Amino acid sequence: MKNLKIVLVTVFLTVFVSCSDNENIEPVVNVENKTIENLYAPAEGRGSYTGDFTKFSFKEGTQVDGDNWDIAFRATEIIINGGEKGKLLEDIDRTGEASLAIVPSVELKDVKEAPEESAFKQDTAETLALQTGSGNGWYNYDPTNHGINPITGRILIIKTIDGNYVKMEITSYYKDGDASNPANGRYYTFNYQLNSEKGNKTFK
């Protein structure tokens, strides 16, 4: 984990609701913006991967080892902690109720609210919430240089195991963003914003 870098900006949004001339209610919504750099997601094999998943908790803001994970990575495969295992080789148990939706063709900053619950999916034995393969999930594959390129504007919305909402964008699959050497692959960099108020779907 020594290669994992975390950049954190905490934004406090204060909403003032006037109840009378002398009383104000000031609910504070804590919204965290983070950048995760070089999260290593190794795998064995090519195409059909085996080995352990790198588990990540949005609440903790880092890689975790227990069942408190929301999303997990293994090479180009991404799973969530909700639903059931079986789609992938050496898949792992889902112990939570996380789910995922995709908002296409928009900048992360422009996503102000999570979609309706009907848009969210969990992993199943037949289909992952975030599909694998070029163009289907989060990346495009370039056969000329074997590059893995995150799809610009493909925003992931995750409902975490704790019932919080996260918006996330993967920006690089290579260590320090250097795609010139294939050996630099399997290092994720992504931006995300977590709304720490359970059930609150809004973002800044």
Content-based structural category: mainly beta
Strand element count = 14
Low-confidence stretches: 9-28
- The coarse silhouette is globular
Helix proportion range: under 10%
Q: Identify the strand order in the major beta sheet.
A: 1-4-14-13-12-9
Kindly report how far apart the N and C termini lie: 29 Å
Continuous helix count = 0
Please, what is the average pLDDT? 89
What percentage of the residues does DSSP assign to strands (E)?
A: 35-45%
Radius of gyration computed on alpha carbons: 18 Å
Helix-strand pattern: EEEEEEEEEEEEEE
- What's the main sheet like? 6 strands, antiparallel
What would your notes on this structure say?
There is one protein chain. Helix content is 0%, strand content 40%. It has 204 residues and is mainly β. The strands form 4 sheets. A 6-stranded antiparallel β-sheet has the order 1-4-14-13-12-9, with no helix packed on it. A 4-stranded antiparallel β-sheet has the order 6-5-7-8, with no helix packed on it. The chain is globular and about 45 Å long. The two termini are 29 Å apart.
